[in-house]
Amino acid sequence: MSRRYPPTRFPVSLFATPSPAHQDIFYTVPRAGHLLGGPDHHIQRTHFPGHELILCCGGRGWVRIDGRTHPVKSGDFVWINCHRPHEHAAVKDDPWEVLWIRVEGPRLEQICQILAVATTPVFGGFDRRSAGVLYRQIFKQMAGEGPNAPALVHALVARLIALAFCARQRTPGPPVVVPRVLARPVERIRLFYFERHTVAGLAKLAGMSTTHFARVFKATFGTSPIDWLRRERISQAKRRLVETTAAIKEIAEQVGYADRYFFSKDFKQHTGLTPRQFRQREGGDWRRPEPG
């Protein structure tokens, strides 16, 4: 005989009305809760505000995006972009228990794209224990409604999103941040930033034409491969300026610039400071004076 389950119930059900000012700068959570699903739990929408982040604490469920059904088991994390048609429900003979929040805020659509949420909304290998703590802290802030609650909720949601990135990196599936086709050229730039690179040479590492490589690279990073290389060199130079007493000319050569003038010009373009000014500001007065 199959087990009989009670209908869906909500041990925790929270609402909030974020101010317009907070919505412009923070992740906000207008709705959240703890749900004990029953065989009746089934939600289907064509469009809804926000993004639902669901942690399955027990039982099983499923989510359907773009006509494809994804099973959900205990310990899984689910990200649903509610702006698109979606459907989710408990498995009738083993209904799930979930903690969930509905999030609104800046750049969530872009984060969804990076995490490939549309095609892979279920995250396996999730840090369930850490996530459970974050959900309950969010619930506490929403229930207390203290003056700092909006900022604290924002920080807690950001930590939850960080766990999603960590889970995606630990499991096979869609690329995160850097598409696989760009992995070799990006690694080459990071490890050998001091060498001379060309777009054609980097494209060859990716197995792509120069034009297609440049287009994919800019779509991913928002800048050209050569500008990304320059930024990497400037980052390396910053560390050397602060952590060593090496001459600026020497640092310029170490990070790939044959000409100190061009190094100083690039450095000021990216930081607003000359290398000497940056060293004085970030390193303190204990550094030896450096001309220029």
SSE inventory with pairings:
Layout: E1 9-15, H1 20-25, E2 28-36, E3 42-45, E4 51-58, E5 60-65, E6 68-73, E7 77-81, E8 86-90, E9 97-104, H2 108-114, E10 122-123, H3 128-144, H4 149-170, H5 180-191, H6 199-206, H7 210-221, H8 225-243, H9 248-254, H10 260-271, H11 275-283
Antiparallel strand pairs: 1-2, 2-9, 3-8, 4-7, 4-9, 5-6, 5-8, 7-10
Structure explained in plain terms:
Helices cover 45% and strands 21% of the residues. With 292 residues, it is of the alpha+beta class. It folds into 2 domains: 9-170, Regulatory protein AraC (Jelly Rolls); 180-283, Arc Repressor Mutant, subunit A (Orthogonal Bundle), CATH 1.10.10. A hairpin with a 2-residue loop joins strand 5 (60-65) and strand 6 (68-73). The longest helix has 22 residues, at 149-170. The chain is elongated. Mean pLDDT is 91; it is low at 285-289.
Which structural traits does this protein have?
292 residues, Jelly Rolls, Arc Repressor Mutant, subunit A, 2 domains, four-stranded antiparallel β-sheet, 11 helices
Please sum up the structure shown:
The chain has 292 residues and is α+β, with helices and mostly antiparallel strands.
Percent of residues in helices: 40-55%
Overall pLDDT, averaged?
91
Query: Looking at CATH, which topology of the largest domain would you report?
Result: Jelly Rolls
**Which H/E pattern describes the elements?**
EHEEEEEEEEHEHHHHHHHHH
Determine the strand fraction and express it as a percent band: 15-25%
Separation, N- and C-terminal Cα atoms: 84 Å
What is the makeup of the main sheet?
Answer: 6 strands, antiparallel
CATH-level-4 superfamily name of the largest domain: Regulatory protein AraC
Spatial arrangement of strands, main beta sheet: 1-2-9-4-7-10
Number of helices: 11
User: How many domains make up the coordinates?
Assistant: 2
Uncertain residue segments: 285-289
Inertia-based shape? elongated
Counting DSSP E segments of at least 2 residues, the number of strands comes to 10
- What's the CATH architecture of the largest domain? Sandwich
The computed structural class is: alpha+beta
The radius of gyration over CA amounts to 25 Å
